[in-house]
Amino acid sequence: MSRWAIGIDLGGTAIKAAVVMEESGILTERSIPTETASGPAGVVVQLASIISDLYRGALLTLDPERFAGTGLGAPGAVDAEKGVLSYPPNLPGWTIFALRDELQSCLKREENLEIPVILENDANAAALGEAVFGAGHSFRDFLLVTLGTGVGGGIILNRKLYRGPNGTAGELGFMIIDFEGEAVHAGIRGTIEGLIGKEQIVALARRMIEASPTGSSVGLLCNHDYTRLSPRHLEKAALEGDELSLAVWNRVGSILGVGLASVVALMDIRKFVIGGGISAAGNLVFTPALEQIRRSTLPPMHEGLELVPARLGNKAGVYGAAALCFGGT
Amino acid sequence: MSRWAIGIDLGGTAIKAAVVMEESGILTERSIPTETASGPAGVVVQLASIISDLYRGALLTLDPERFAGTGLGAPGAVDAEKGVLSYPPNLPGWTIFALRDELQSCLKREENLEIPVILENDANAAALGEAVFGAGHSFRDFLLVTLGTGVGGGIILNRKLYRGPNGTAGELGFMIIDFEGEAVHAGIRGTIEGLIGKEQIVALARRMIEASPTGSSVGLLCNHDYTRLSPRHLEKAALEGDELSLAVWNRVGSILGVGLASVVALMDIRKFVIGGGISAAGNLVFTPALEQIRRSTLPPMHEGLELVPARLGNKAGVYGAAALCFGGT
């Protein structure tokens, strides 16, 4: 019988959790709103309760002897060894918190359960999820790129998570590709996230529309209220052939490609799995990105270059958190 | 008694070789001009002859039982497992060559010696040299930066060489920091090497001198013949207080710092060992580089940032080549 684990993705908006089978993937899943107002202690109670629910439910059909534990992906800097989470963005009021030990204690105290918990950064967990259950399965080494509000990354080397010496590796969005440019984001000039984060893509489109003499059909999609303009509108218009929207995506892909060329040069990684909400634009971004990687790297580095869409969508986090328990790292 | 090995650094100008003791470093060393005109076969004979000389000389005082083998660092892409060197720059006429096996055969045929050879890329060997015998000894993880004609790098993770999935990792000079800038180098826009390679530093200084209303005292050092201007002149003038030369080094350091900030973001490496001819400028480059890394990274990544000069100079290659034989990787 397959081993099973509980995977949890703790976010600022929702706690997603699932019972994951090592062989076949998600068996059951839950999602509840994160009670951010109740602070770390309140969130720990929420986590313990959802783990307890899933665990007791699973025992109706699954063998407790085959239970591999609980993995928990959380935003912010994670010391995986100590189980400590530091300054998670989107969780107001959290500073430095021994999340793993607090959760294990709470499980014992409130739910009478002794369950081991493994804590990991959420982007790392997502990368591991794609590595074990998703688009990265056939790659020994790859970078998971998350295109969304921000631009994130998770690195898999030799099928294992690469955390870096201090556990903060994979911050693709904070690589710098335009050090003399105008974009300053989080106080740093010319970062990838500062150029193609979600808001920055929309702002780029607005600038291009303003500067365009011929205009764009994307205006029809947002009733010419450009404060409502979204990447979805740009995606739709581009697929309908709108030149300006196509130009926006070409530029987004090209900027991403420049960044990934630096990853090729430094780490010799040539496989890229692209996820996150913005990646819904698919080949509108992927094609120019791959072309740009080729233009921006030396020919001996072109062999084996691949850029593929992520497969697990917003479930990569729970998959990866569970994979932590299967020794996927 | 200490183990010993022969380390060789094959360059386009010279072959440097040494007998290296595991505990105490270089015992004896040689340097001969590389006979590039004689092609791969001729260079292999040169290598075999210098190895034989060093080996037989060493046996006068050293125990053959403690001999760990020969390590060979070479420019270009190296497949360390297969012992194959591909397209080494500065070795005209070389394409893809089974250097390790050819050298072992030649040692047997010409010198009647059965000596195992380990082949490695020269920048990687230099990084390993600094890791085992030099400035990187106290760092578990670091990037060796080589500032010279080009800008190179070698990555040490967990005290071992990080070669990358295809053996081409560490190409710091081909990371892109100015994708919309004017500098195009080896066909790629905005690379670090295209901005602060040796020639590019001199060209930057010339542009700044031309644009300067007040001029620079560096002209005195090259007899106002700016075709003869060198980084050494700029170093000397800066140390004498010449504002323009100081500004040149500030800019070089700042550009290096931007690139290293991307290394911090992606790999979470926070220790940098700086070598190569240009690194003779020392704090003229190091100080603005470290300041720029801080400006260009998020505060949580500042902890533990260090930037130190390499210690082995142009001997890092032979040290590292020997270290390959001591299981340093």
Provide an overview of this structure.
The structure is a homodimer of 329-residue chains. Chain A is of the alpha/beta class and 329 residues long. The first copy, chain A, folds into two domains: 4-128 and 315-325, Nucleotidyltransferase, domain 5 (2-Layer Sandwich); 137-310, ATPase, nucleotide binding domain (Nucleotidyltransferase, domain 5, 2-Layer Sandwich). Helix content of chain A is 38%, strand content 22%. In chain A, helix 3 (122-133) crosses helix 10 (316-325). The interface between A and B is large, with 52 and 52 residues.
Provide a short characterization of the protein structure.
By secondary structure, chain A is of the alpha/beta class. Chain A contains ten helices and 15 strands.
Q: What share of residues are in beta strands of chain A?
A: 15-25%
pLDDT average of chain A, as an integer? 95
Which regions of chain A contain 5 or more consecutive residues with pLDDT less than 50?
A: none
Biggest sheet architecture of chain A: 5 strands, mixed
Shape of chain A: globular
**Assembly annotation:** homodimer
Number of spatially distinct domains of chain A = 2
Distance between the termini of chain A: 22 Å
**For the largest beta sheet of chain A, what order do the strands appear in spatially?**
3-2-1-4-8
- Count the strands of chain A? 15
Helix content of chain A: 25-40%
Q: Give the helix/strand class of chain A.
A: alpha/beta
The number of distinct helices of chain A, counting runs of at least 4 residues, comes to 10
